[in-house]
Amino acid sequence: MKILAIETSCDETAIAIAEFKGTKQNPTISVLSHIVSSQVEIHKKFGGVVPNLARREHEKNLVPILLEALKQYKKTRSVSHALGKKIERILAREPELLRHFKKYILPLAPPDIDAIALTYGPGLAPALWVGVNFAKALCALWGKPLIPINHMAGHFYSATLQNEKSGYKVENIQFPALGLLVSGGHTELIYTKGHGKWTIVGETRDDAAGEAFDKVARILGLPYPGGPQISKLAEKRGKTLSISLPRPMIGSDDYDFSFSGLKTAVLYLVRDLKKKISVRAMRPSVAREFQNAVIDVLVSKTIRAAREKKVKTILLGGGVAANSLLRERLRAKIKKEMPRVKYTEPLPWMTGDNALMIALAAHFVGKKKAWNRVHADANVRLG
Ligand code: KG4
Ligand code: ZN
């Protein structure tokens, strides 16, 4: 099964093509294309992602990225008037994309793929819709089925892709499994007894972990996205101020999180420290303590959920999974306290949003649908 996957839920335009062989449970993978075009530089000026700007960028990027992903294609055909009209209707709200589509995609012979997988939610509605309509137009043109995929399922499966001497392999998940998914929009503990049998056992009640990193970075006068900035600062050596921040909900007897109060605590801390020292001077200490507070809570709740649910595998996923201290601490804790549990973390370049993780999720849990029955759903949840 050869899958072309599309991801446009936030500020990355991504397309991947992957071929899966072998069994459903234990596939081999060939990564034929994997392209991610980040809009981070565009949104930086605004201190966060601007949905309509993201949508415009996706509109501009999708066709060139698809042509790059296809690598080889033949220009052979002319399409019927009726099919041309159908494409015009599907892309009526994306005039720039439609223009590119007519010029570059309509004349292509259908590529050698079996299905198109697509992120239909959760995410930013205007950004999701561009991807959905683009995927629908491709399915209508090429007569391929569409596989709608939940973005969080993508992050869940991202850790299954691992390096191998001659390319990549897909890790076999032993069930029951627990996923700690930490991104800019979500912080969730997902329990599953088998592929696609999701239960959200814990989640944030307010800000997501990545969102907290981004907000604290802003308090410290650092640019968006804040996660990488904070983790870099936290690694800086030098004098450490003795400060302590709360570990919200670390002792609560559920698996939920809350990071909004932690952000407010940082705001007050910085305000008080400013009376004595410059923001620049306090940054490494505040970054370190804040990062430790977030990681303490994430690791502690994950371990407790894994123990109580008796899981055999723990997977890490999402943009915050790029944080090397989080990876080290979670890895070490699992090794020490539950050595029989298998732990997998994504390759560093698989942590942020990408389409390869959508192709992986499509392999494991995808259900083909007629393209005209697929819609974007900005708030869809797993399970
Ligand atoms: O999964 P992702 O790329 O997009 C969403 O689906 O939200 O996650 C982006 C988030 C941002 O909030 C960013 O600050 C955070 O991941 N992030 C990090 C690190 N790298 C990215 N957070 C902490 N440490 C990092 N090294
Ligand atoms: Zn994401």
Structure summarized in a few sentences:
The protein is α/β, with parallel strands linked by helices.
Notes on the protein architecture:
This protein has helices spanning 40-44, 51-70, 81-90, 95-105, 125-142, 151-158, 209-219, 226-234, 260-273, 279-308, 324-337, 356-365, and strands spanning 2-7, 12-22, 27-38, 115-121, 146-150, 161-164, 167-170, 177-182, 187-192, 198-203, 313-317, 342-344. The chain is an alpha/beta fold. The strands form three sheets. It has a five-stranded mixed sheet with strand order 3-2-1-4-5, sandwiched between helices. It has a five-stranded mixed sheet with strand order 10-9-8-11-12, with helices on both faces. It has a two-stranded antiparallel sheet with strand order 6-7. A hairpin with a 5-residue loop joins strand 9 (187-192) and strand 10 (198-203). Helix 2 runs parallel beside helix 5, helix 3 (81-90) packs antiparallel against helix 5 and helix 7 packs antiparallel against helix 10 (279-308). The radius of gyration is 22 Å and the shape is globular. The model has no long low-confidence stretch (mean pLDDT 96). Zinc ion binds at residues 151, 155, 183, 318-319, 353.
